[in-house]
Design goal:
Two copies of one chain form a homodimer. With about 425 residues, chain A is α/β, with parallel strands linked by helices. Chain A contains 13 helices and 17 strands. In chain A, strands 1, 2, 3, 4, 5, 6, 7, 15, 16 and 17 form a ten-stranded mixed sheet that branches. In chain A, strands 8, 10, 11, 13 and 14 form a five-stranded antiparallel sheet that branches. Chain A has a two-stranded antiparallel ribbon with strand order 9-12.
């Protein structure tokens, strides 16, 4: 290890040791007041009044920490702790918006954790070579305006923004006009160009699944993000009277759909070693009458895996099942969304693992686990732009997108400790 | 055979031979004009303006045939061709209403066929011992006001009418007020008491299924009406993120519902010799999102069979499957409608078979087939009141409740011939 890297890791340890758990808990609780619900959840859809008020709070906090504050065309917010050089900065953060009924942590934890890291650096009197930027991405959830992760996606490929601006919410408000209104609320902020150079992006997030909790491990090194393919399957038979039509005369679309679906579930079970995940979430059974044989059934398939080859083999199986199904009707399917798996680079994984190991060891907790993310995150898009990585902390019972979303304070503390180590090391001389 | 019965069969043959196919076709076409649609279908929901206009047409036709016309508390219409005695009459007919989009034949055929029978008796100059009444039952379809078969059901058990009068349509009009308005349109008609004595009830109807067409047989002797049980099955699991939740951590309600449903279909297939019919027609999958594991699935089961013991064994199987299903959620079911099978008496079946055999033989067509009815009919309720029976003619491709509903004119002709024989025999001295 060269002297620069040794110094970087020394500073990383000092930053990690200056994280303040109580201040972190206060900040999480305060941010949760914006859109806070009586049931403990948070309703803060993107660019809503609650979101804009939360942004104002974050801007004030960052200003108090001495940050330079900027925004961009997609209303992403950047809080900069300047470095000694103008080398490309290290970016951390997450998103500020929630599902219609979400929790206190999904997204918010990564943003607040980034500000806590800046406070710790201030306390420790650490100067970094590179600037450290904390970002709050716009519209990660995609529930008010689809698709999700607009802010990070448009940052990486600015040409996407034009189409996003046309997206409308249930009140027929366009994303573009909501963006313009948000910008008008923060007229004094400088505009940063989209797609600016970054040295690395590190996102801290709750797992939103049960893997870490089940393993009793407080920190997860996220190796990548599962790929996904969404299919729509249409079984077209013939609606007929439930009483008068003999079983062997039927073209019952539900019988075909159920048989197919069971075959697909059986295939997924046979692939359990490759961790193929299969969800048949949306069903439309027509005409939907108790005493009429279903004439048409349309259902969706969400297939996910960290290995794209497994998804391709699933698609081959789906094609085979569809073609070989023998009945009086016919079956079609189409893929209507597809995203290949994301793999984070080894250098980032190793650094995150090192930071998690130190934080866990000092807390006398289990060593970190490597796992993939089942959910999409802004880091998925950033990975197309710069070396990126993610740190996970456990979600109690794996629950997320729910008021009951929770993580133990001691785990939240370790997560920010790991983030502080990783980001400080990257900003002070660790090479990639 | 005694002399009376011999005479009765002689008159029955004469009545059968006086049926006029052209007059029948004209009457079917004319009645279909009331609520007639450009696509060839008929929209004549019960007690609608179209239905009331059709009733006026039928009253005029019956009056021209010399009939005595009466109604009752449920606006059922009766057209009487008086007999020589005041013995309980023989009743035939069906219903005058259609589905929102129905065909020309469902119900209408039985009413028009009854009037054609009276015209034939007039032409043949036949006097019957018993009066012959043709009925047009109110609201058999049950689509505007639920349940169906109100007219026949209330005729048999008049106490049911009070509850029926409270039934409302989509415009919040009660069945009671629609009845009152209908009565006001026919102020000169006498009121017949409900539940009056009948010697027999014979209903002529299209099959609404594919059995006769498949067998290339023009006439069916209906042995009875299938029993039905309707169940609602609720699978309660846990909604969760499709991406983050490992397969072995899920309580996927759709996996449970599909697995159960496939087991029930397999059971039905194993019971094919008993002709158990199974339809899973209504599905509600919550929350119904592509990327969320279904937390709750509710589906309905329509189970039908001519043998109540088979239905009971199915219910036992359903209970077993429900109880023995092993997963992280739970499954409940309830029976929300039940009607035992109806068996028509042998004496009626034999007489109908005789009438069908003669009509088929003279037309050089295949001998009649005995079959059960999968659909409900007014005869199902009448069977609780007097010896009842039904005659079926084929439905092209088994299609009904559809503008495409059709039956070959030569089959419609044979059906009314069989009806004429049966009813005349019953009205002139055949004993039961």
């Amino acid at each position: 290890m060269n002297q620069q890297a040794e110094l970087a890791l020394d500073l990383a340890q000092r930053a990690q040791d200056h994280i303040d758990s109580e201040r972190l808990q206060d900040a999480i609780a305060t941010l949760a007041c914006f859109g806070g619900r009586k049931d403990g959840g948070v309703s803060r859809e993107t660019l809503s009044d609650a979101d804009l008020a939360a942004r104002r709070y974050l801007v004030d906090q960052a200003r108090a920490l001495g940050c330079l504050i900027e925004t961009d065309e997609c209303a992403n917010l950047y809080f900069r702790r300047p470095g000694l050089t103008d080398l490309p900065p290290v970016l951390t953060g997450s998103h500020n918006d929630t599902q219609p009924v979400g929790g206190k942590l999904d997204g918010a934890y990564g943003v607040v954790g980034g500000l806590e890291l800046i406070a710790a650096l201030n306390d420790a009197g650490i100067q970094t070579q590179r600037s450290i930027d904390v970002v709050a991405w716009t519209n990660e959830e995609g529930c008010r305006f689809g698709p999700g992760a607009m802010g990070s996606s448009a940052f990486v490929v600015p040409a996407r923004l034009a189409a996003y601006r046309e997206s409308v919410d249930s009140q027929q408000i366009t994303f573009g006009s909501a963006l313009d209104a948000a910008h008008a609320q923060f007229p004094d902020l400088g505009r940063r160009p989209m797609s600016s150079a970054l040295f690395a992006y590190i996102e801290l997030h709750i797992e939103q699944g049960p893997v870490l909790e089940r393993a009793e491990v407080p920190l997860g090194v996220v190796t990548g993000i599962q790929g996904v393919r969404w299919y729509r399957v249409t079984c077209s038979g013939m609606a007929a009277h439930a009483g008068t039509t003999p079983m062997d005369e039927r073209a019952d679309a539900m019988v075909a759909a159920l048989g197919m679906a069971n075959q697909l579930y059986a295939y997924a079970a046979s692939q359990s070693v490759s961790a193929l995940r299969l969800t048949l979430g949306q069903w439309r059974v027509s005409p939907g009458s108790v005493n009429t044989i279903p004439g048409e059934v349309v259902f969706t398939i969400d297939a996910r895996c960290i290995d794209d080859a497994v998804l391709q083999r699933f698609e081959d199986e789906l094609r085979d099942v569809t073609r070989s199904w023998t009945w009086r009707g016919h079956i079609d399917f189409e893929c209507f969304f597809q995203r290949s798996p994301t793999a984070f680079p080894d250098a980032i994984l190793d650094l995150i693992e090192q930071s998690c190991q130190r934080a866990s060891r000092l807390a006398q907790r289990a060593a970190p686990l490597r796992l993939s993310s089942g959910a999409f995150h802004d880091a998925m898009y950033l990975a197309d732009h710069c070396p990126s990585g993610m740190i996970f902390v456990p979600s109690e019972k794996g629950i997320s997108h729910n008021a009951a979303e929770a993580t133990a304070p001691r785990d939240l503390f370790l997560g920010v400790q790991a983030l502080a180590y990783t980001v400080t090391a990257l900003a002070t001389g660790v090479s990639l």
